[in-house]
Design brief:
mainly beta; 6-stranded antiparallel β-sheet
Length: 140
Amino acid sequence: MVIFEQHFIDEITDSSVGRKDRASSGFPVLEVNNEDDDIGFVTPGGNCMGWTKMAAGKYKLDEIEAGPADGRFASDRNGAITMLFGGDSHQPDAVVISPFNNFMALHNVMDTEAGVLYYGVQGGAKQIPAGFVASTIIQG
């Protein structure tokens, strides 16, 4: 288990990046698999982290990019939890990545242009108060 934290010592005003599908901060930033065909993902998501936009598939950049426009990988305001596992080989190995605190302010971003998955404060947040802590947990 690893917990990543972002500590905002001072208040940040005008922190919005203007897009709700991005984040105004990002840590950790994880490179998306681009080689191994044997890694799968499940991303539950939708209204208030429901199951209305649950997605599953191969965790490979070109497969995620080729997915339908309505969201092959649940991210931004529609998701936050990412589960990665052994794919077609059905290995018992799995990793779960999720916000660890301030769940309503944090989310994941699948940036296919940069080929990264990152977690941070929602891009539409207009300010981040002094002392705010954004934590992400990776459990495997």
